[in-house]
């Protein structure tokens, strides 16, 4: 093989005879030989089978017959542009033929993969068509023809071989003569060469062919075809910053030195671009010096587990094949067969061992190997992201880029009055904006990342902040921000797709990180204005605080169910908008922003940033607008503002519009289905008129209508279609559809979504099984974490809606959980269900779902007034109906509202929901004392002196005003109170608050009460310092960020401070003091709070319960229900485990326990459960004739209890066990086990169990 692989194209042809079990060997061979293309016949792949071929684009022809055999696969290196080409002349379904066009730098080549089954009679005209040169000027045709002719190495000639020979004589395609037989034949038989390759005359002189000493487990040799002088398209290497090895101190030093040596004048239009260029070049220069780069390798090794053993047995196999090909004796034939079988068995063993070792290292942290990534890979939900490179697909990328970029009309720049300029951004706002960027996303064209911006010295941040303020107030921006980098991601297609259409790709915009930081700060101001001024309707959800997709779904459910109670049918149209964000008209958006009263500076910025930019992918460029760039942080909020008018159109009566971003649901309710249909048609026509004005279009094929509770049959429902004047195709009514991740059915039973959830979670459970067996694999703690944090959230999403439609939904999901817990523990099928839940400390699923439902509905009712009103409407319908399952929804909601009433929960008003924190409302908070780091470092007298000194020095009464000491207290009985002490008049005040309130909230209530008492008392001093010993309470006030929506108690404190500032010009400060430091005021406040808490409850307590405090109470209630249900269930089964672990809520015993042998955990779990892989269990599974112990007389059942405590075959070992455990002979081993366990005892018991055998196999 030539070393110059860049100028040659290597094609491997091979008949696999089942590819799935040989994929490892063939991919390893492809790696070793730098194979560019593989043409494979008889893949035997089914349409559902996923083919994993790293570094290759797979083209499949899964034309399986009744035996599940045949099929073609063509693998093309993903660095080559390639596409499937249709062959229209094939009219015989028995013949498999697939053509793929591969593009090189100097030409394109058509690779034709063919398989013709034996025994099939074909006319001569078929082969004339196959060898037709008009297909393409450059063709390589290869495959298994199942034809014999001496010309390509066979020992005889058959009819098909003669036909091919005759057609080839009249065709410009030329046979590429090989050097021997292509298929293993038995000794004494004629040579078998059924595989052949042909090429165009234009390629023939540069082609060589070789039959290799490799079968990869098949009975066909690999055929290697090499095309010389094949100029490949050069691939531009991609580099990324390696922040793990960055020298941030050096990075900081370089930036400081360069910027400190430069004199910066006031920023103007003249010098702004120059200053930004200097700042950018400084950052990049420092990054180049201090941060190494690593090249992203587009090729990955196919088999990371391949080792020297695999290499050795493969070489031995190839040597045996070579020996047999030279001398076809019976001994050599048998030696070749044995070497092949041995190689395959060894490779399989190495692969399995490597996989088990890998699984044993899996961890829930990223080191050494992330179990989260492995789960997503093994369940089939995650595939390697494939990027389309513009240099390899220039035409396709150019077409996509042109389709999404449109010319933007010349817009008149908005006049800005400097006198009305907004407050400049502060360094604190910049730091908060940077802190929100937790991960480094792909940088823009300038290659500056978030990590660089965070690690800049203060001088560089200050300069950047000045440029930000200049940009915003003068509506200017550097040229770098107007250049957007585009990358293309190949969309996932089904593995059985035989389409010859070009691949579908999705463009992504990579916007400069510096401008995204500025946009995020502008976005905070924009959101505050929009929410505070109620510019968006309450039925509009998505990218809004406390208006999630669950809000939208819940409101839709409630409206449908409430309508059902009122004898109304509901018709819902789920709209799919084509390219919603990219279709936005910037001039129309600017008009909408002006009508909403948004700051002209923000409006002008949006107009300029989204109007005209240069989009480039490195090869193609386009100038114009892409509407709202999907990579911009401003786009979601701006889109909400753009389409909010759709909620306020003049629709027919009984119409509601719900939306989540660009997912719209149009609901129509009436007592007549046909009237619903008429109104829906009218509403859609009205909606489409506004869509046309906004530049939006709906995708009729993806837009669906669902009619709820209409009483129609499936046949009648087919007639419920809507024909729109502007669209040729009708909108159809369906029985089920998916909206915001929930499968909806026409009666809201939840069956279809439950099935969907179970199917998805079963994939995850199968992935868990692939990572752990009873004697190998990862730690059960890792498996438990994967289940609780990766699988359970899929069940919990929307559970407050879909689960309650039918009781059977709970039962099916519980079966899923039982299966997962058995897998986690290594338990057998007969294990009692209560034991599984007790060992893993997992609540029964109905308990968990009831808690999740209660928690979700409480959050929705507290923060969403629409849902609050809909719930009240639903639980108190005008027509009481005793209909199941809708009464299940009503019962649970009635229970939830009762809980909230009894707990006296605070329900947020729209004003509280719309509040957004502004820097002008920031409080003066000092949550520390410099001389006091930890209270434990000082004795009480030292602590008192330090705190008193700090107060006297920092807050002298003549300058700081009054001193307000506050405290919150909770007694052991749960009684809670808040109190304050005012030093100026030596008065203390307090009140009792709800017992459900946490001490944290009691402290905040005390602060609020002190401020209100100060405001209400006209004789109080104007200025004050609030002194609290709750550092967490003061930190919650200190850490408020711009745009935050804090709890109502904090909002009340801010309001009290603002009232004092406005009416008294007061200066209010907050200071933390160490608790129990014997400061007089703090002691008085503390004693007052305790005294009030110990008093009898007043008729009405102060302090409404917040959502976090309510959830704390709900968790306690959940644990009570869990223990109660566990007690009931263990009355029937699970006594053994309950005697060992009485409390199911305790931490699982295997947490923080390590073992060298993974079988240790499965064995101990089976002992605790009392069920194992015993003869008794095998008898239950019909794998053993009797359940009795073979070593004991009198037909004693060989269950776990017998094998541990009574089996006569292990008397000596049991005596030694008793001695090591220090227990009396005759004591049951399970009686000695009591939670918490000692690992030393478990190790001794495990060793004892390992010594017990049943016919040579472990007994448990």
TrEMBL record:
InterPro entries: DNA/RNA_pol_sf, Endo/exonu/phosph_ase_sf, Endo/exonuclease/phosphatase, RdDP_mobile_element, Rev_trsase/Diguanyl_cyclase, RNaseH-like_sf, RNaseH_domain, RNaseH_sf. The keyword ATP-binding does not apply. GO terms for molecular function: nucleic acid binding; RNA-directed DNA polymerase activity; RNA-DNA hybrid ribonuclease activity. Residues 958-1094 form the RNase H type-1 domain. One of its GO terms (cellular component) is DNA polymerase complex. Residues 470-744 form the Reverse transcriptase domain. Keywords: Nucleotidyltransferase, RNA-directed DNA polymerase, Transferase. Coiled coil: none annotated. This is RNA-directed DNA polymerase from mobile element jockey. The gene is pol_413.
């Amino acid at each position: 093989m030539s070393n110059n692989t860049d100028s040659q194209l290597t094609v491997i042809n091979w008949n696999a005879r089942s590819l799935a079990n040989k994929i490892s060997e063939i991919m390893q061979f492809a790696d070793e030989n730098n194979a560019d293309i593989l043409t494979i016949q008889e893949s035997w792949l089914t349409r559902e089978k996923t083919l994993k071929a790293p570094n290759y684009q797979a083209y499949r022809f899964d034309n399986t017959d009744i035996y599940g055999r045949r099929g073609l696969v063509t693998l093309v290196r993903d660095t080559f542009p390639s596409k499937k080409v249709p062959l229209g002349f094939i009219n015989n379904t028995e013949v498999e033929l697939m053509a793929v066009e591969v593009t090189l730098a100097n030409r394109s080549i058509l690779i034709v993969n063919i398989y013709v089954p034996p025994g099939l009679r074909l006319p001569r005209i078929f082969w004339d068509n196959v060898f037709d040169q008009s297909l393409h000027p450059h063709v390589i045709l290869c495959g298994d023809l199942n034809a014999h002719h001496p010309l390509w190495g066979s020992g005889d000639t058959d009819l098909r071989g003669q036909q091919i020979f005759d057609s080839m004589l009249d065709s410009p395609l030329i046979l590429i003569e090989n050097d021997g037989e292509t298929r293993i034949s038995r000794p004494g038989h004629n040579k078998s060469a059924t595989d052949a390759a042909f090429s165009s005359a234009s390629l023939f002189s540069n082609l060589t062919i070789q039959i290799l000493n490799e079968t990869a487990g098949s009975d066909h040799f690999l055929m290697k075809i090499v095309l010389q002088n094949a100029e490949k398209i050069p691939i531009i290497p991609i580099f990324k910053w390696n922040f793990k090895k960055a020298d941030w101190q050096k990075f900081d030093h370089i930036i400081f030195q360069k910027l400190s040596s430069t004199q910066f004048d006031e920023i103007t239009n003249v010098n702004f671009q120059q200053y930004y260029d200097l700042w950018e070049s400084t950052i990049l220069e420092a990054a180049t010096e201090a941060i190494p780069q690593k090249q992203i390798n587009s090729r990955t090794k196919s088999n990371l587990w391949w080792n020297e053993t695999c290499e050795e047995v493969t070489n031995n196999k190839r040597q045996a094949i070579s020996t047999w090909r030279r001398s076809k004796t019976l001994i050599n034939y048998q030696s070749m067969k044995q070497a092949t079988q041995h190689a395959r068995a060894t490779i399989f063993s190495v692969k399995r061992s490597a996989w088990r070792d890998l699984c044993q290292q899996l961890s829930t942290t990223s080191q050494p190997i992330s179990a989260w990534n492995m789960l997503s890979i093994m369940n089939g939900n995650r595939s390697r992201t494939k990027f389309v490179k513009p240099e390899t697909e220039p035409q396709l990328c150019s077409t996509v880029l042109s389709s999404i970029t449109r010319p933007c009309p010349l817009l008149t720049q908005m006049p800005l009055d400097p006198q009305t300029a907004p407050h400049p951004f502060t360094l604190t706002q910049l730091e908060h904006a940077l802190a929100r960027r937790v991960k480094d996303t792909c940088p823009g064209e300038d290659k500056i990342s978030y990590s660089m911006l965070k690690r800049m010295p203060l001088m560089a941040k200050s300069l950047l902040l000045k440029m930000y303020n200049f940009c915003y107030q003068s509506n200017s921006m550097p040229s770098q921000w107007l250049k957007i980098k585009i990358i293309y991601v190949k969309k996932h297609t089904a593995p059985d797709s035989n389409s010859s259409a070009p691949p579908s790709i999705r463009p992504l915009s990579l916007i400069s990180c510096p401008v995204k930081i500025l946009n995020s700060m502008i976005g905070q101001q924009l959101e505050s204005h929009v929410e505070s001024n109620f510019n968006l309707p309450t039925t509009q959800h998505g990218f809004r605080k406390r208006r999630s997709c669950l809000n939208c779904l819940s409101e839709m459910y409630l409206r449908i169910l409430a309508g059902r109670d009122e004898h109304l049918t509901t018709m819902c149209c789920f709209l799919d908008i084509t390219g919603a964000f990219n279709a936005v008209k910037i001039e129309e958006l600017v008009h909408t922003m002006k009508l909403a009263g948004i700051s002209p500076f923000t409006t002008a910025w949006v107009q300029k940033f989204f109007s005209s930019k240069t989009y480039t992918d490195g090869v193609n460029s386009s100038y114009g607008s892409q509407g709202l760039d999907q990579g911009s942080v401003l786009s979601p909020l701006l889109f909400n503002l753009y389409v909010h008018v759709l909620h306020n159109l003049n629709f027919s009566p009984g119409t509601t519009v719900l939306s989540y971003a660009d997912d719209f649901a149009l609901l129509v309710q009436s007592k007549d289905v046909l009237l619903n249909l008429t109104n829906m048609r009218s509403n859609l026509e009205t909606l489409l008129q506004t869509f046309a004005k906004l530049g939006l279009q709906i995708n009729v094929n993806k837009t669906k209508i669902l009619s709820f509770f209409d009483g129609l049959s499936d046949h009648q429902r087919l007639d419920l279609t809507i024909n729109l004047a502007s669209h040729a195709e009708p909108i159809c009514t369906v029985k089920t559809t998916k909206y915001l991740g929930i499968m909806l059915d026409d009666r809201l039973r939840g069956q279809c979504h439950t099935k969907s959830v179970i199917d998805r979670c079963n994939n995850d459970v199968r992935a868990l099984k692939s990572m752990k067996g009873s004697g190998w694999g990862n730690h059960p703690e890792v498996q438990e974490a994967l289940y609780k944090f990766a699988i359970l959230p899929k069940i919990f999403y929307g559970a407050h809606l879909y689960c309650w439609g039918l009781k059977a939904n709970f039962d099916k999901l519980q079966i899923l959980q039982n299966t997962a817990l058995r897998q986690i523990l290594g338990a057998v099928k007969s294990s009692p269900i209560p034991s599984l839940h007790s060992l893993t400390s997992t609540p029964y699923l109905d308990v968990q779902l009831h808690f999740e439902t209660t928690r979700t509905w409480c959050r929705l009712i507290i923060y969403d007034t629409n849902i609050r009103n809909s719930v009240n409407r639903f639980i108190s319908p005008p027509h009481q109906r005793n209909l199941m399952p809708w009464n299940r929804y009503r019962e649970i909601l009635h229970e939830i509202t009762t809980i909230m009433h009894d707990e006296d929960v605070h329900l947020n008003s729209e004003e509280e929901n719309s509040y957004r924190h502004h820097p002008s409302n920031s409080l003066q908070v000092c949550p520390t004392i410099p001389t006091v780091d930890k209270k434990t470092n000082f004795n009480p007298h030292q602590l008192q002196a330090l705190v008193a000194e700090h107060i006297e020095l920092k807050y002298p009464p003549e300058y700081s005003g009054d001193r307000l000491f506050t405290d919150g207290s909770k007694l052991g009985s749960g009684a809670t109170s808040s109190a304050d002490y005012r030093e100026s008049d030596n008065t203390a005040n307090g009140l009792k608050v709800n017992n459900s309130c946490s001490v944290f909230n009691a402290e905040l209530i005390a602060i609020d009460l002190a401020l209100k008492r100060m405001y209400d008392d006209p004789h109080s001093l104007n200025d004050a310092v609030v002194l609290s010993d709750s550092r967490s309470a003061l930190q919650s006030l200190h850490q408020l960020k711009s745009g935050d929506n804090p709890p109502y108690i904090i909002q009340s404190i801010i309001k009290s401070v603002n009232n004092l500032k406005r009416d008294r010009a007061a200066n209010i400060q907050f200071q933390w003091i160490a608790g129990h430091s014997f400061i007089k005021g703090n002691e008085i406040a503390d004693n007052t709070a305790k005294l009030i808490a110990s008093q009898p409850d007043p008729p009405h307590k102060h302090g409404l319960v917040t959502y976090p405090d309510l959830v704390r109470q709900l968790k306690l209630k959940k644990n009570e229900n869990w223990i109660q249900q566990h007690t009931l269930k263990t009355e029937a089964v699970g006594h053994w485990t309950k005697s060992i672990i009485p409390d199911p809520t305790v931490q699982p015993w295997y947490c923080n326990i390590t073992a060298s042998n993974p079988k240790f955990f499965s064995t101990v779990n089976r002992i605790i459960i009392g069920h194992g892989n015993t003869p008794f269990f095998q008898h239950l599974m019909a794998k053993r004739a009797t359940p009795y112990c073979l070593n004991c007389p009198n037909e004693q059942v060989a269950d776990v209890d017998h094998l541990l405590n009574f089996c006569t075959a292990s008397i000596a070992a049991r005596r030694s066990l008793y001695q090591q455990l220090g227990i009396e002979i005759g004591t049951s081993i399970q009686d000695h086990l009591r939670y918490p366990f000692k690992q030393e005892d478990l190790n001794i018991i495990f060793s004892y169990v390992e010594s017990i055998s049943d016919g040579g196999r472990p007994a448990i």
